[in-house]
Amino acid sequence: MIYATCPETSIIEHRCLVRPDLSGVVESVAPNGKYKINDVIVTIIDDNNKKHELTLCQKWPIRHPRPINDRLYANIPLITGQRVIDALFPIAKGGTAAIPGGFGTGKTMTQHQLAKWCDADIIVYVGCGERGNEMSQVLEEFSSLIDPKSNRPMTDRTCLIANTSNMPVAAREASIYTGITLAEYYRDMGYHVAIMADSTSRWAEALREISGRLEEMPAEEGFPAYLPSRLSEFYERAGLVESLCGKQGSVTIIGAVSPQGSDFSEPVTQNTKRFTRCFWALDKSLAYARHYPAINWLDSYSEYAGDLEKWYCDNVGEDFMKCRERFSALLQEEASLMEIVKLIGSDVLPDDQKLIIEITKAIRVGFLQQNAFHKDDTYVPLSKQLKMMRATLHLYDVAAYAVAQGVPLSKITDSGLFDKIIRIKYDVPNDKEELLDSYTKEIDDVINTFTVS
Asked: Could you give the residue ranges of the DSSP H alpha helices within 345-376?
């Protein structure tokens, strides 16, 4: 039950909730006006005739999940504006995702992009064991960045929990529980919340240090034997739910993992993989090649694609998931062909297989790679993503037909069509998506000149 509301920021209304474990009869209510956070607003007499005073804040133990009325089916995507995520590896509101990657692969920057552009109502950013300068960067960026939905600074919808690496180990271990409890509190108000935990590896290291001081029996790599259960308890607190006051809200958890030496077989990464349904594996070679987000399309996966298929078909386009599947199949086929190319070179491949390498290059550079500093490329709406996929696949289909008719692939590549597809992300502004419709006709006109001649 909501007993008071007040503006927390210009875009967030704070709804004061009766504690889930409290019920009774309202004895008195304060009139509308200005109050301090510890002023008594409501008094309740419970069934044991005991009086309870409710203020504008609420205390709750951070290691205990807040109760809910019902857990709902997570079939609505969390739209991020990042093409590799929205199109290939989507996540649902109320879902869980892991971002593993070694040093320098862009875990923090990927989470920054998600925090800036995802369509959650509130962002809870937990800097667990992070460097102090990174926390300062978050504060500076979010205060200067304007939220496109509200035209207000991003800080108006962001909670930042700064637990730097020089703080006590016990505080680091408690930080992610603080973050998830805050997220649940806003979820119960009826908000969709996304929590960015950066990084759970440093939280696990704090857990290992505390366990060592308690002289507990260590398990693999010195981590305590209860590491998997602690991780599962954390990720299980995500979900799309109906709160006790009847409102629908969600908590989406996106946790970064920092395996030493990019070794994904270490305990924290492996156990996180067990309890999350999205796995966005960051690749060191992609990061060093300046391909961002450095999400490896072969090692990553999302188990939410089937759950979200109906939403994409109803709200974006009936062929969205088919285009996604074709993109994935082409990228898988390219990986097999590149093994042959490494051994004997690309000259021995027939033109139809060379075409696959050319079109996947356009997919990798033109679609999966994204420029966070470009005004149109930092965030891309789903409708434009679909049109980009359609244009790319249309080029592949008509080029494959031309190659089958005997047209040399070199003629098609020399026409500049592949370069034009790669430049779509810069050449077509987000507010002028209709320009993409002309690409299909231009592709047909160019290819027809080859097949006719």
From this structure: 351-362
